[in-house]
């Protein structure tokens, strides 16, 4: 594995790795991705193998621009074009009927494919230089905490990745919103970096969020839909701010190791012996630091992390979703 700063020469090294069937880690605005040439079935299979990801869990294909939609989608509906024009590059994945040229290895055997254009200069330069689609889930072991720095990728995957492009910390910090466009009316399958309010503003009508969690076994319609996911080693417990002291006292009574707290702001009157992580801030700030804080909990050896989620507005919906799934693990 080679970790490199994303100069033009190093991006070409990553392109060469992709073209030879290798795996690369690329920074995006959401999380770091584990990328393979989407047209190379053997390389894509290696993504599943390295992650430990079930082969019936589809991958998202990353594109250089919206013009490539026609190459990967069976057809481009007016709604798909509208959303692509409004939010790409950006943290929005469109689930559409796949083109016949898209391998079922990428889609987990499903007739649909998730497509997006990431909003990160390194990712975009890589995609333009490569010229094709890059199939890329998050660059971590399946079901665990997603990586938002190159160091996270290396800690999780090490030499299983041929080239790691270090583009700094991810700006958004949670995965892309996934919108299913294969139904009569768009449905959000995964909350993410684009809020439902922003989607509805562009569409001009209300849309639904698919709230039922997929079982832990069997294929998923889209990434990130399993009931238990995004989990640190520490047990995650959720509570409202007014319940913090009561919950911490209860957790301390049964915990087998140190207990930590993650909240949006500093709290007073906490029990002794609580490891208080740096406050996460606003919902947007919370999203940007969420995965790094969950990883910090493990580095500190916490047995339990009590989390006070942000309000469920804007990207706060995605943060609450990730915390609920982490707590279900």
From TrEMBL:
Domain annotation YrdC-like: ranges: 8-194
UniProt-recorded name of the protein: Threonylcarbamoyl-AMP synthase
EC category: transferase
GO-annotated cellular components: cytoplasm
Similarity comment text for this entry: Belongs to the SUA5 family.
Chief place of localization: cytoplasm
An example molecular function term from Gene Ontology annotations: double-stranded RNA binding
Gene3D superfamilies registered for this protein in UniProt: DHBP synthase, Threonylcarbamoyl-AMP synthase, C-terminal domain
Catalysed conversion reaction: L-threonine + hydrogencarbonate + ATP = L-threonylcarbamoyladenylate + diphosphate + H2O
tRNA processing recorded as keyword: yes
InterPro entries per the UniProt record, alphabetical: DHBP_synth_RibB-like_a/b_dom, Sua5-like_dom, Sua5/YwlC_C, Sua5_C, T(6)A37_SUA5, TC-AMP_synthase_SUA5
Record key words, sorted: ATP-binding, Cytoplasm, Nucleotide-binding, Nucleotidyltransferase, Transferase, tRNA processing
BP GO terms, sorted: regulation of translational fidelity; tRNA processing
Compartment list: Cytoplasm
E.C. designation(s): 2.7.7.87
Keyword Cytoplasm listed: yes
């Amino acid at each position: 594995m080679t970790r490199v700063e994303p100069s033009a020469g190093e991006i070409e090294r990553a392109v060469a790795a992709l073209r030879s069937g290798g795996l690369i880690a690329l920074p995006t605005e959401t999380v770091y991705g584990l990328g393979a040439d989407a047209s190379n079935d053997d390389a894509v299979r290696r993504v599943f193998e390295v992650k430990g990801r079930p082969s019936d869990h589809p991958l998202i294909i990353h594109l250089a621009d919206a013009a490539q939609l026609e190459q990967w989608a069976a057809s481009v509906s007016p709604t798909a074009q509208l959303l692509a024009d409004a939010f790409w590059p950006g943290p929005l994945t469109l689930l559409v009927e796949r083109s016949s040229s898209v391998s079922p290895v990428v889609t987990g055997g499903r007739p649909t494919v998730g497509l997006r254009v990431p909003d990160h200069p390194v990712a975009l330069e890589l995609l333009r230089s490569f010229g094709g689609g890059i199939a890329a889930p998050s660059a971590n072991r399946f079901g665990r905490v997603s990586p938002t720095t190159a160091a996270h990728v290396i800690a999780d995957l090490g030499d299983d990745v041929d080239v790691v492009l270090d583009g700094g910390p991810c700006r958004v910090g949670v995965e892309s919103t996934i919108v299913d466009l294969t139904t009569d009316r768009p449905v959000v399958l995964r909350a993410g970096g684009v809020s439902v309010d922003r989607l509805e503003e562009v569409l001009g009508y209300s849309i639904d969020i698919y709230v039922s969690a997929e079982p832990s076994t069997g294929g998923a319609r889209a990434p990130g839909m399993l009931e238990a996911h995004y989990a640190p080693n520490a047990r995650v417990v959720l509570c409202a701010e007014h319940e913090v002291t009561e919950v911490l006292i209860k957790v301390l009574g049964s915990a087998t190791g140190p207990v930590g707290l993650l909240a949006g702001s500093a709290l007073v009157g906490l029990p002794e012996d609580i490891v208080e992580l740096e406050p996460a801030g606003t919902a947007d700030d919370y999203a940007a630091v969420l995965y790094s804080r969950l990883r910090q909990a493990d580095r500190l050896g916490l047995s339990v992390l009590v989390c006070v989620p942000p309000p469920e507005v804007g990207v706060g919906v995605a943060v609450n979703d990730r915390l609920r799934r982490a707590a279900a693990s």
